[in-house]
What we know:
Layout: H1 4-7, H2 13-42, E1 61-67, E2 70-77, E3 82-87, E4 93-97, E5 102-107, E6 110-116, E7 122-128, E8 134-139, E9 143-147, E10 153-158, E11 162-169, E12 172-178, E13 190-196
Antiparallel strand pairs: 1-2, 3-4, 4-5, 5-6, 7-8, 8-9, 9-10, 11-12, 12-13
Amino acid sequence: MDTTIATHRIGTRDEWLAAREALLVREKAHTRLGDELARERRALPWVRVEEDYRFDVRSPGRLFAVTASGGELLLELPGVYPNGIAFDADGRLYWTESMAHRLMRLEDGRPATFCQLSDGHVPDGMAFAADGRLFVCTTVSKGVTVVSAEGEVLDEIHLGEDATNCAFAGSTLYVTATHVAEIEASQRTGTLWSVETDATGLSLIPGAL
């Protein structure tokens, strides 16, 4: 039997507050030390790379299904790289191919173009509404592109930042974004948006990744 609760020291509210304030001083010092270490890490000297490590042939993009019992390769896509994925109400798999500026759908076990976007749209994460519309985060265009159930562009939600992923909570669409499209770990530019829509999010499908 776990006796942790029974043996833990009991104090008054004032005692807890005094101990918490003392610990807070150490926590703030720890945070400042972490910030200083991160600054020094970013200031480390760079090393010139003399050798060309680029590969002549890029590995193909792949889509996997993962369950508690293991994983299965669904598709191997030479030359393109799947990004965000989503399922519609019929359980069909969709994914974005960012560099090709398009949304794809799995039809009869084969990839098919669902919506070809313009070069000014780089699709990333996406989420389905219950009515079949697809809300697609698009960098460069700096917002969310709304696509009909038939694959036609309906609308643009302009955020002024590069949207990267989204999810519904009822009719609210939560969107992650960055101030710049090309972001690295040292750039703390991430933002989280809440957008009220005229849609209701489609319930997610549990059980697999």
